[in-house]
Amino acid sequence: MKDNNEQLEQILNKVHDNQISVEEAKAQLRHYDELGFAKIDLHRAQRQGFPEVIFGQGKTKEQIDQIIESLLNTNQTILVTRVNNDKAQYIINKHPQLQYHDLAQIISSPIGAIPKSNAYISVLCAGTSDLPIAEEAALTAEVMGTNVQRFYDVGVSGIHRLFEHIQDIRKGHVSIVIAGMEGALASVVGGLVDHPVYAVPTSVGYGANLNGITTLLSMINSCAPGTSVLNIDNGFGAGYNASMIINMLENK
Q: Which residue intervals define the domain PurE in the entry (predicted)?
């Protein structure tokens, strides 16, 4: 991401060369875009390293579309989370250059066109029922330019499946562990690796799982050091945090 001075110089040079008007330059330098129902933060990438992410749940498809238009007008990477199929089809029809990932319910800029980091993060999930949250984490990281290795269906009820991949998991610089039920996988992985672990409890489980509350409390009480716990079903938060670590490592 270009720093503020470089961006400013490019805009001023375009004005000087009559490539853009003064009004267009002013628009590019705005701190936010007022849409009435939302104020779109246009400088978030300069402050935090990645543009504003759109949370699709609770927004209408028309509102999501307007926010995407605002971000595209300033050449920003698009990441929209929690978008159901109906909203997604509307958005993709209007913006065919974007991609919809139905399992994760994510709309994004084309992932294949985004340069990836040399270091990678490991994304693990305990079982197939946890896949939507695992994919939300993995795709978030990939949109942010992070290389991801996936290790799925490696829960503790068949722990030999985890050990088969443990050397590759250890080569990653961060692990994201997605699990429901009692959430034991996070503690197991935390005791086997020498890098940070982000644990994400899911709402997957029978009655006493309490829609992920039991898993959350179990992960918070993990005895494995180096484990940080995200909110229930918050794959996005884990993918974002892990990518920030990789970005710091490769750009320090």
A: 119-251
